[in-house]
UniProtKB/TrEMBL annotation:
The active site is at residue 66. Coiled coil: none annotated. InterPro entries: RibonucZ/Hydroxyglut_hydro, RNase_Z/BN. This is Ribonuclease Z. It catalyses: Endonucleolytic cleavage of RNA, removing extra 3' nucleotides from tRNA precursor, generating 3' termini of tRNAs. A 3'-hydroxy group is left at the tRNA terminus and a 5'-phosphoryl group is left at the trailer molecule. SUPFAM superfamilies: Metallo-hydrolase/oxidoreductase. PANTHER family: ZINC PHOSPHODIESTERASE ELAC PROTEIN 1. Its EC number is 3.1.26.11. It is an enzyme of class 3 (hydrolase). It comes from Pseudoalteromonas citrea. Binds 2 Zn(2+) ions. GO terms for molecular function: 3'-tRNA processing endoribonuclease activity; zinc ion binding.
Length: 312
């Protein structure tokens, strides 16, 4: 499982950073997931290891333009690339309305079904072949959300000792069980979950939209491998600019991650005031003062690999 950061700027792009977009890739699958799609994201995808053809899930955190203006053009390009499989869009209702209106007004007919899941109407997590998605309500000037992604499609291993103890000899049914399929053997139903286990513990990441209250993540943070959160300003600069922005600062996010022992914290969505040689060091110094785990402040196209937790 890996994360590639396609846009790490807040509000507007600069020469070194584009606006928000984050790609998530999964084990042994060409299909991938995108969180947010600011203007120009499709150009960033062209420079990444991903293709628009294989994009299957898109999650939009909120309706501000630096998080969704690139989506109509991306969907049009996906259609022109020959995509015919269903694409799932998980987004606030107003973003869904924006997309549909833009496609109609620009006379774009998609070659694939765009299955829309409006976050306000969800009462449970979403399960897709790639991952489970829990939607987290955040605090911003407009309704904003985070997404907790739990890896799925993990290869199964057989509990050989248990199979032997039940007198179940090797055969084609072993292959079926390993694929997660229940199978009949000598007149008995063998339930795959009873005789297999996942090769590794599911990897879990949280990727947040704009959020001024990191503590809202508390009910979701246990077991998370990586927290990706905005740090638009330093603590001092945020108070100078004003709390009305609805953003977080590096200090508050770092304090939250330290309190909850998050093993890896990734900060992004930086104000343009920190773009340029050496300027990000202010945010790094502030976060490092309050968090002693694995900390990264990412640039556009940085790649983060999330290790497997192998079960033996």
């Amino acid at each position: 499982m890996k994360i590639q950061f396609l846009g790490t700027s807040s509000g507007s792009p600069s020469l070194s950073r584009n606006v928000s977009a984050t790609a998530i890739g999964f084990e042994k699958s060409k299909e991938w997931l995108l969180v947010d799609c600011g203007e120009g994201t499709q150009h960033q995808v062209l420079r990444s290891e991903y293709t628009v053809y294989h994009l299957s899930i898109i999650c939009i955190t909120h309706l501000h333009g630096d998080h969704c203006y690139g989506l109509p053009e991306l969907l049009a390009s996906m259609s022109m690339s020959g995509r015919t499989k269903t694409v799932n869009l998980v987004a606030p209702k107003k973003v869904v309305e924006f997309i549909h209106s833009t496609l109609v007004l620009t006379d774009v007919a998609l070659n694939f079904e765009l299955h829309c899941h409006m976050v306000e109407e969800l009462d449970a997590a979403l399960d897709f072949p790639l991952c489970r998605i829990d939607v987290i309500k955040l605090q911003h000037r407009v309704p904003s959300y985070g997404f907790k992604l739990t890896e799925k499609s993990i290869p199964k291993k057989l509990l050989i000792d248990k199979l032997t103890a039940h007198g179940i000899e090797p055969g084609p049914h072993f292959n079926a069980l390993q694929k997660g399929l229940d199978v009949s053997f000598n007149g008995k139903l063998l339930v795959a979950d009873n005789f297999t286990y996942n090769s590794w513990r599911a990897r879990v990441v949280i990727i947040c939209g704009d959020n001024e209250k990191p503590n809202l993540l508390k009910p979701y943070i246990d077991g998370v491998d990586v927290l990706v959160h905005e740090a638009t300003f330093t603590h001092r600069d945020l108070h100078k600019v004003g709390m009305h922005t609805g953003h977080s600062d590096a200090k508050r996010v770092a304090q939250f991650a330290q309190e909850h022992q998050v093993p890896q914290l990734v900060l992004f969505h930086f104000s343009v005031r920190y773009h340029g040689s050496g300027l990000l060091s202010q945010l790094l110094a502030e976060a490092s003062a309050y968090y002693d785990g694995h900390l990264r402040l990412v640039e556009d196209f940085d790649l983060l690999l999330i290790d497997k937790h192998i079960r033996k």
